[in-house]
Specification:
Chain A is α/β, with parallel strands linked by helices. Chain A has twelve helices and eleven strands. In chain B, a hairpin with a 2-residue loop joins strand 3 and strand 4. Classes of the chains: A alpha/beta (401), B mainly alpha (442).
């Protein structure tokens, strides 16, 4: 049995996808009714463009042609609090702010100082203090601490399970594809072939559960256009389906969705505006799809780093440090900008070029997990974000009492 | 392991699996079959011969600069059909290739030096980039490929070097323009040293200064659309990169910096690791990485020699199924097995459905290269459904048992062979073959 032996050997090297781990300690309790969505914005969203501090005296001068004008000027920012605003391309989100269903954390940065997209995304997702320090993601570790009745409350929306949701707790996934369903008996026969395979076997078993869940909720009409699911214009499709799968009574509760297109080194004004519009459309679609579950929802949209304070030589911005993180949801005590603004004066900048960090991303995530998903801070420090005790959750609650 | 098993490994782990009847031929000398594909005189695939050069496309495009309507029409009527044609021809070339190992190497290097059409402005030339900067050097020198890549208009556009201006260059001084550090950073992080290669933010900025002026010939030049060094954009004065001073002036600074980066020990380590992840395992053994690293250093970056080191890695020959195929690999190996569809629609459908349309990687880091990034629960179902769909359309053309013998030959498990034998229909037998671990892996 050459093959079987070799496949078993493979198990040692191919442990990265551990969708078949133990359900963990949360098996017995009734699943949470709260919904949480993490949107990973890949590429480094320019927080000073998306959420301009239009009233900061240094802002317009530093940003030059990329500065978003004051709210009273045509095409200017949509005011938030007299100091910060929203880029006008995010107009569709402004009503959420007025309804206290939106907040912004500004000058947020990950634990490690790196301007590499790929290391920074790894830190954003692994929840450790450095890149490559942890093989699984913080959201997967959090799943093990959230009550579930054994069903898959974690959901990855898109072509892969993002690193933040990989780990020992099995999760569901959904991606659009215009493919005819395969028969159950046929899949049973395939499952026999995958019996010894450490990657394909668990993926098929989980895939059948995922498929059953999405079919219950989304129906058989799985005809949404597939294509490059990693392209930013797919975000709305993914967000809407994710919302519906979370809204279902017996559906998932915690989802992750990705959106790219944020790495704007060149002529960013138009391209970034377009990406912000796509983002806003997706968030609105997510809210609509969540429907009655929206009041129990928190959405966090986070990126790996912000961008340089100065525009570069070509109408864009290069990789920076701190940036903006969005929070949405009916459960949120919103309409506020979190964080102590470090300012944009030359002396305040990080390494003379970037917005300085005021909030540790882990502190923000920990606050959301504490307030919305009832995970106790000691567990957050011990398992979800190990080594993060210094990045304490906020004193005030982020959600409505 | 038998010689037949070695033939399977040569075909599947280094290439895209065997075409019907091919395993027997490979079995005569599996290593020889691979090494023979690394000869410098192997001709490029005939399927690509009619595709236009990058500079000619850029020259066409330059005529539409400043006319958004004409530009839109150009994108719709010229770029979109060209992109579809390029992707179809490239897929067919791999499926029909007599040198599939070489095709895999082309894709590896093309992915290492990613230019993505997700950035619309590089879409017209992504295919030309692979044909012009990658293919000619795939068994040549790393330094030559690096130079061809960095000077190719597609890369200069994709990573924005065309927009980078020395602030004190004649043009920058007049127009108040400045640096764009995108290309400089990604050359060091992704193409050469790797993220832990020991460079700082200051090195990124200095390298960006060195690369100012590396640009594209506009319509004023004799041959528009080719690489051009533009002295009026180049930042004057000495630059300091990784502890060395570059004060040659002009284009030579960039050449000297690429010389240094290509020979840097961190580059050998970074490239060796990526090759091992691609060809050996998602988490490759240190010994394999070390042999590749040594080969890179000892051969002074001779990519043919490094490919021969891959052929000699015992780890690859011990383990036929260590990696899960990417959608691109699954697609090409399917068409190798059952023949590629004539029409571009069905030919490319699996790539579209599984989310890996060539030349559209999500970032400059390229497509992911591990099972965790390609196999999610639902995408696993999609891979199986896709095989089932293909089987529905084609099964009556084959005897699945013969085909299983051809595809999986000496390594198929008894479980898989029995399932195929006992399948209730030819369609299901073929669908099982395509779904089997022996076919989904390589």
């Amino acid at each position: 049995m050459l093959t079987r032996r070799l496949l078993l050997q493979t198990a040692i090297g191919a442990g990265a996808l551990r969708v078949a781990g133990l359900p963990g300690l949360a098996l017995a309790a009734a699943p949470t009714e709260n919904r949480f969505v993490l949107v990973v914005l890949r590429g480094g969203m320019d927080g000073l463009f998306a959420v301009p501090p239009w009233n900061d005296p240094d802002y317009a001068g530093l940003r030059g042609s990329l500065a978003v004008a004051a709210p009273d000027i045509d095409g200017g920012a949509l005011d938030l609090d007299g100091f910060f605003g929203l880029h006008p391309a995010l107009k569709a989100l402004h009503p959420l702010w007025r309804r206290e269903e939106m907040a912004v954390a500004h000058a947020v940065a990950i634990a490690e100082r790196t301007r590499s997209h790929f290391d920074a995304q790894d830190v954003l997702e692994n929840g450790a203090t450095r890149a490559h320090e942890s093989a699984d993601g913080w959201l997967n570790r959090a799943l093990a601490l959230i009550p579930s009745d054994g069903r898959r409350i974690g959901l990855a929306v898109g072509p892969a399970v993002p690193a933040v949701m990989r780990g020992g707790t099995p999760v569901a996934s959904w991606a659009p594809a215009n493919l005819p369903a395969a028969g159950a008996e046929f899949l049973d026969r395939v499952a026999v072939l995958y019996g010894a395979d450490p990657v394909l076997g668990p993926a098929l078993a989980e895939g059948r559960r995922s498929e059953a869940m999405s079919k219950r909720t989304l129906g058989n009409a799985n005809d949404m256009a597939a294509g490059n699911l990693r392209a930013p214009n797919q975000f709305k499709t993914l967000a809407e389906a994710g919302g519906r799968l979370l809204a279902a009574r017996d559906g998932a509760r915690i989802a992750v969705v990705e959106m790219g297109g944020w790495d704007t080194h060149f002529a960013q004004a138009n391209r970034l505006s377009r990406n912000l519009e796509l983002f806003a459309e997706g968030i609105v679609a997510l809210k609509e799809a969540l429907g009655p579950a929206w009041p129990r929802t928190v959405v966090v949209a986070a990126t790996e780093f912000g961008r340089t304070v100065h525009a570069n030589g070509s109408g864009g911005t290069d990789h920076g440090t701190a940036g903006a993180t969005f929070l949405f949801g009916g459960a949120l005590a919103g309409r506020r900008v979190l964080g102590k603004w470090p300012g944009l004066g030359q002396a305040a900048l990080f390494e003379n070029r970037d917005l300085a960090p005021a909030i540790d991303m882990r502190a923000l995530f920990k606050t959301v997990l504490r307030d919305h998903l009832a995970i106790a801070p000691p567990a957050l420090d011990a398992t979800v974000f190990p080594g993060s005790a210094a990045a304490a959750p906020f004193a005030t609650r982020l959600t409505r009492a | 392991m038998s010689r037949d098993a070695h033939a399977f490994i040569a075909a599947s782990r280094f290439g895209y699996g065997a075409r019907p009847g091919e395993l027997a031929r490979i079995a005569r000398d599996p290593r020889g079959w691979l090494v023979d594909q690394l000869r410098p005189d192997v001709a490029p695939p005939r399927q690509l011969a009619s595709l236009p050069s990058g500079h000619s496309i850029i020259e066409e495009e330059l005529h539409f600069r400043g006319d958004p309507e004409a530009r839109k029409r150009f994108n719709r009527e010229r770029v979109a059909p060209l992109f579809r044609d390029e992707v179809a021809r490239r897929t067919r070339a791999a499926a029909e290739s007599d040198a599939p190992f070489r095709e895999r190497l082309v894709r590896f290097w093309s992915n290492h030096f990613t230019v993505s059409a997700l950035a619309n402005r590089s879409r017209p030339v992504v295919g030309a980039f692979e044909r012009e900067a990658i293919r000619p050097h795939v068994v040549g020198r790393f330094r030559d490929m690096l130079g061809a890549v960095v000077k190719h208009p597609a890369m200069l556009i994709y990573l924005d070097n065309v927009a980078s201006v020395g602030p004190n260059s004649p043009r920058g001084f007049r127009a108040g323009r400045g640096l764009n550090e995108n290309l400089a950073r990604e050359i060091m992080e992704l193409h050469t040293l790797g993220v832990d290669g020991g460079y700082s933010q200051a090195d990124v900025t200095e390298f960006a200064r060195i690369l100012t002026g590396w640009s594209i010939a506009d319509l004023k030049f004799a041959t528009p659309g080719v690489f051009a060094y533009r002295y009026d954009l180049h930042e004057p004065g000495p630059k300091r990169l990784l502890g060395r001073t570059y004060d040659q002036g002009g284009e030579d600074e960039g050449e000297a910096a690429l010389d240094m980066l290509a020979r840097h020990p961190a580059t050998a380590r970074h490239v060796a690791r990526k090759l091992a992840v691609h060809f050996v395992a998602d988490d490759p053994p240190a010994a394999a990485i070390e042999r590749l690293r040594r080969s890179f250093i000892d051969s002074d970056g001779d990519l043919g020699a490094i490919a021969r080191t891959l052929v000699d890695l015992p780890e690859i020959w011990r383990e036929p199924f260590a990696k899960v195929k990417s959608p691109d690999e699954l697609t090409v190996s399917t068409w190798r097995l059952i023949g590629s569809p004539e029409q571009p629609g069905p030919l490319l459908a699996p790539l579209r459905l599984l989310g890996q349309i060539p030349f559209t990687a999500p970032s400059p880091a390229g497509w992911p290269d591990t099972a965790a990034e390609w196999v999610a629960p639902e995408t696993m179902i999609h891979r199986i459904q896709l095989g089932d769909l293909i089987a529905r359309r084609t099964a009556r053309r084959f005897d699945p048992r013969t085909l299983a013998e051809d595809a999986l030959g000496p390594v198929a498990s008894e479980t898989t062979l029995r399932a195929i034998r006992q399948a209730p229909s030819a369609r299901e037998a073929l669908a099982l073959l395509l779904a089997s671990p022996e076919f989904q892996r390589r």
